Amino acid sequence: MRSSRAAFAAATVLCGLLTSCTGEDGSDKPTVPDPTPSSVAPPPQEPLTAPEVDAEYKEILSEGPHRGVQQFGTIELPKGESWIKVNCISRSKPVDLKLSLEGIGGFSLGCSGVEVEKTANQMNLSSARKLHFTVVTEESVRWHVSIQVPKH
Description:
Oligomer: single chain
Structural class: mainly beta
Strand content: over 45%
Number of domains: 2
Number of strands: 8
CATH topology of the largest domain: Jelly Rolls
Shape: globular
CATH superfamily of the largest domain: Galactose-binding domain-like
């Protein structure tokens, strides 16, 4: 920063000493160098946190922070309403994260390289189920997952 100021001060003095020093627009004002950097740094990433647990719900699974692919053992989902919440962020470029529940299906979401993506998906099961749970994504993606069911 000092060398930039010193160079600017020297250029200003030199320009003042010269009688034919003009700005780009032809005026007698000295040309001032553009202080903006030549390359723009990416914005800082948000911190990754676990999904919030709603007051009327309890968490039956909480995992994270993890990176990349993770396969979990058997989890038991009760009959009725359940929520799967995922918070994720990529190290740089946007990347997809796929979450699957064996026998039920799954969903995909995009994980941004700047903001934490927060997704909530509701399921309504006609009967209780035991199933395997898997998260598939690139190693550059950090994520938290929470499965929540109503408190009864």
